[in-house]
Amino acid sequence: MILPWLRAGAALVALLIPLFLAVPAPCGDRQHVVLEVILNTDNKGEFFVYLTADGDCLMSRDDLVAIGFDGPAGTILQTGGRTFISLRSMKDVAYHFDDETVSLHITAAPGLLRKSSIDFRPARRPHVYYPRDTGAFFNYGLNYAGGQPSGHRSFTGTTQVGVRAGDLLLLSDSNYTRSGDDGRFVRLATSVTHESRLDLNRTVLCDLYAASGYLGSAVNMGGISFSRNFSIDPYFVKQPMVDYRGFATLPSEVRVLMDGAQVRSQKIGPGPFDLRNILAFNGVHDLTITVRDAFGREETVRYPFYSTDTLLARGLHEFSYNAGFLRRGFGTESNDYGGFAASFFHNYGLTDSITIGVRGEGLSDLVNAGPRMSWLIRRYGTLGLSAAASLSRDTRAGYATSLGYTYQPRNASLRLLYNRYTREYATISTRTTDDRTRSELGAAVGYGTSRLGSISFDFAAISRYTAPDSERYTLRYSRAVTRDANVYFSVTHTKNNSSDTRFDLGLTFHLGKDVTLSASSQKEDGSDYQTVQVQKSAPVGEGYGYRVAASRSGMQGGDTASVNPYVQYNGRYGTYSAEFRGDCGPGSADSRQSLALNASGSISYVGRTLSFGRPVSDSYGVVKVGDLEGVGVYHNNQLVGRTDRSGRLFIPGLTSYVDNHISIDDRDIPVEYSLKEVGKYVSPPFRSGALLAFDAVRTRAVTGRMETGPRGKPVPVALGQAAFTLSGKEVSFITGRKGEFYLENIPAGRYTGTVRDARRACSFTLVVSPSDDAITNLGGILAENCH
Length: 787
Hints:
Blueprint: H1 2-22, E1 25-27, E2 30-39, E3 42-52, E4 57-60, H2 61-67, E5 76-79, E6 82-86, E7 93-98, E8 103-108, E9 116-119, E10 128-129, E11 135-148, E12 153-165, E13 168-179, E14 182-195, E15 201-211, E16 218-228, E17 242-248, E18 252-258, E19 261-268, E20 271-278, E21 283-293, E22 298-307, E23 317-327, E24 337-349, E25 354-363, E26 366-376, E27 382-392, E28 398-407, E29 412-421, E30 437-449, E31 453-464, E32 470-482, E33 485-495, E34 499-512, E35 515-524, E36 527-536, E37 543-555, E38 558-570, E39 575-584, E40 592-606, E41 609-613, E42 619-625, E43 632-635, E44 638-642, E45 648-654, E46 660-664, E47 673-675, E48 679-682, E49 689-694, E50 696-698, E51 701-708, E52 715-716, E53 721-726, E54 729-734, E55 740-744, E56 749-756, E57 761-768, E58 775-782
Parallel strand pairs: 2-8, 9-20, 10-48, 42-49, 51-58
Antiparallel strand pairs: 1-2, 2-3, 3-4, 4-6, 5-6, 7-8, 11-12, 11-40, 12-13, 13-14, 14-15, 15-16, 16-23, 17-20, 18-19, 18-21, 21-22, 23-24, 24-25, 25-26, 26-27, 27-28, 28-29, 29-30, 30-31, 31-32, 32-33, 33-34, 34-35, 35-36, 36-37, 37-38, 38-39, 39-40, 40-41, 42-45, 43-44, 43-46, 46-48, 47-50, ...
């Protein structure tokens, strides 16, 4: 009889324990309880809370921060070494205790809560390989050109040498031309470049191209250049991006639409939220933010903004400082340098709406400098202002001003430009020019939709001090008539000493992959021209491309017909092309033929590998897939070739700084081989090499049976734990119920180990013989010396 009563009593205690735990425990005039805390309808979980006799609630400061408060403030009490805050004393906070659910409901103003942040900046791809291999390449090109009836023949050879070690790059170009009995060798440019991906700075020594910015000049010189070059990181966004701040009273879902298309949807907790780094292409855009709370209520905000890449984000610097000696006779002379020159520009993002800058250049007898500013006029486009002054030893001071405006509403564009120059204004490149420009006026307006096509009108007028003025008007229209066909039309009217009007009409058809058929007709005063062309683009890897064009031109003296075939083949070890042009005029003396032949290639070195291939156009790489031949290699999902007998393939066209995806076709891998990866991303520096290894390991299996007992009557060592030593490391395995075992990639050799089952431990010896078989069966392995 006692046992049933004991069982009932235990059950009653089990039922009452949760109730006792929920009852507040006295602590002076405060009760310490564990409550479920709900903040603005969002369940935050269970926390310790003090309930006071007068109805106040005390929560630790750390717990308030944990549930979402940002710097909670109120009356502070110290209990048990912890800091508690009175909810009653907190401004804009309400609360109540629910006896039925044993929960504490807190309602707080959104401004008191921690901010949620949603970053729209495109995330950088993880696990990108940034090579710093030491490498070198040598590009060469051979060209032959000949024609009839002139009998003229010429031969040209071009070379380029590049050596990279870490952040240093040496480049040197040269050209050799032979025409008749006259041969000439010219060094084109030689430079040493240091660049840093961390700060995007670039330093160039020797030959360089220096530009001082708008209203200035661009010249070749030999010297030194130091610049901030954002192209070193093409994923770096230098232009201002849009931020938006809002509040969510309750747990909500935020939907963000750009021009009607959804770009992000994300759930957030109650409190303020930030939408950061919203990027769009140039022009006017409508940002729509919809906040839908837990009860289904929606609040929508429309936020129009203007985006432009002509401005720098606030705090960014862009600059170029150059000094050296002007290069003369580039392309015809190897080492002809003139007087000392210097140039610079420096732009700074003062705010996200204003970019300011200064530029300048000078010679020993000329100084030219001036400020510039770009200003975003809210949602109504950008205004550019520039001014400059020049001071020369021989003439009075000269001045130049520039005013530009750009506005791009949806589906439309507007550009205006006006430049004014005094007669004495001079730059490095125009100081010896007599034909000075007085003013330049330009305007362009365009509109386009996918349904109606694109139409634009351009106007340009140039006024000069000594030469005649000129004007040009151009009207263009283009439209896709089908998915694979486009039509365009333009009319250009030019006024100079005389007036001339030109009409252009063209059709383009995409016949298939990489094949295009085009036809065009041109007509201007006194002449007309028609042409038909079929073109197939050469592939990224090995393969061929071609172009065949036939044309007719009519003038007052008669018609001329021309044919112009061209073919190019991308081989494994080079690129080869041939072009023929034949013209047939109204008379036999007007007939002409010309032929051009070209062969080019490269020799490169990287990763202790010498490769021969097509010319290196940017960066390059060598793919290594074990020792497997015939494995397809892809660059950005385009087949570039197959590995040779040593498992290698040379890729001459990696794009510097960007993430190139290099992958291999695992269908070409024999079944007995295993791969750790079939694709990887690589981002090489400019004109650099990279060794890209895909480890293809051949799997060789070793099988057998572990046995013991007298010979002739073996007994399997079932479910035994076996181990032996291989190259200083322990290799362990488990035998099956019949003593069978399976091992992979065990080199040929003799190995001694032990095996243990439930009753005993024994020693064994494995003898693995050299073999090319995928599976080697060792048969029965005797386990002896058991104890």
